Automatic annotation (TrEMBL):
Belongs to the acyl-CoA dehydrogenase family. This is 3-sulfinopropanoyl-CoA desulfinase. Its cofactor is FAD. The lineage of its organism: Bacteria, Pseudomonadati, Pseudomonadota, Alphaproteobacteria, Hyphomicrobiales. It is an enzyme of class 3 (hydrolase). It catalyses: 3-sulfinopropanoyl-CoA + H2O = propanoyl-CoA + sulfite + H(+). It comes from Xanthobacter tagetidis. Residues 121-213 form the Acyl-CoA oxidase/dehydrogenase middle domain. Keywords: FAD, Flavoprotein, Oxidoreductase. PANTHER family: ACYL-COA DEHYDROGENASE, ISOVALERYL-COA DEHYDROGENASE, MITOCHONDRIAL-RELATED.
Amino acid sequence: MDFQLTDRQKELMDAAKGAYERKLAPLVADTSVEGVRRLRRAMAEQGLLGLNLPPEHGGLGLPLLDTLLVIQTLQACAPIVGGLCHRTSTGAIGAVAEYGTPDQRARFVEPLCRGEIGISIGITEPEAGSAATALKTRARIEGDHVVLNGSKQFVSFVNINEFTLVYCRFGTSGKASDIGAVIVPHDAPGFRHSSGTLNMADELLFELYFDDCRVPKENVLLDGGAFGKLISVYNAERLGSMARMLGSARASYEYALAYSKERRQFGREICDFQGIQWMLADMRVKLDAAHLLVMRAASTAQVTGLPAPLETSIAKVFTAKAAKEICDDAIQVLGANGYTKEYPLAHRYAEVRGGSIYGGTMQIHKNMIAAAILERENSQWKKA
Ligand SMILES: Cc1cc2nc3c(=O)[nH]c(=O)nc-3n(C[C@H](O)[C@H](O)[C@H](O)COP(=O)(O)OP(=O)(O)OC[C@H]3O[C@@H](n4cnc5c(N)ncnc54)[C@H](O)[C@@H]3O)c2cc1C
């Protein structure tokens, strides 16, 4: 057991920060669709996409743990850059890399690593939020095509990305075993999306509609019996979002620490006050503890290839809460300045707040932890 970062890991993080400062920082202000796609291509040129995807398909083949360190570093630099690194390394593409045919890997993983395409993930539906296996979107094979009917909601990055990995039902048993996934191009006939709803971090979340949406059969990733497989890969995505929460929490902590040494009240720097010192100490304790839990969960992937569910849920519950509290305390250290949009901390808080909801809410992860420690199925479904 080694709690220290290796020289190689420190080099990776320094290189990512250096690439951000030299090449990416000038691009982040342009938040238009074209601007974000330009940034994505620039990140590909810097080797910052597809970090843990297979090298034979253009990825860097980094271990999950190293991937998370880079995501965390880039997130602290700028959330849009951390988000792109996350979405193209441990996002929906992970399922394509893991379960895709050689043809699918060539068509999706390779262009994604070159920054040419991006893939959203469509799981949530109006009546299937936490109860994800209640999803109703149907897929049926018709000749050379798969035809989808249904809808999704709260899907991120749909305007930027060119595809969505859609979780859908291939059978009619109503059981989780019907669930598979299809890679749907956003220009497929019968596909539409809403103009998006702004969330509190000013990011758009989209509704997707499938009305006899026809997609070539070659885009079926898994045609049923796949929910467990999809969620196993999704645990890496969850860890990617935890790395982002850590990056934002660290940036907030460092900002507050520096501010507390500058701001003077009562003739002294505010870091001289015990009330401020204890907030800074609490922030640092939570940051280190969350970091170690996320790294522990990531290290389990070295054994099985995918992160262990229990360690992932434990890391998620602690990190999502810690990140919220760290960002909240950072705002408090800055007083009214922290609460304005002139300073970056209000946005950091809004962003990490979503972490308690997406990727399985805190309560759902606690249910899963309880199931594991009590060694029972812990089904949440109402008994018939
Ligand atoms: C920023 C953001 C980005 C997102 N991006 C995507 C995306 O790209 N793709 C996608 O598919 N989805 C996405 N989502 C949706 C997200 O996955 C869902 O919001 C989440 O699964 C919860 O579903 P819900 O919002 O319908 O809440 P509900 O399931 O309605 O839950 C409401 C409340 O009830 C609690 N609850 C429900 N069931 C239980 C239970 N059994 N035990 C205890 N408490 C329970 C929940 O914890 C929550 O507090 C995103 C959400 C956010 C906030």
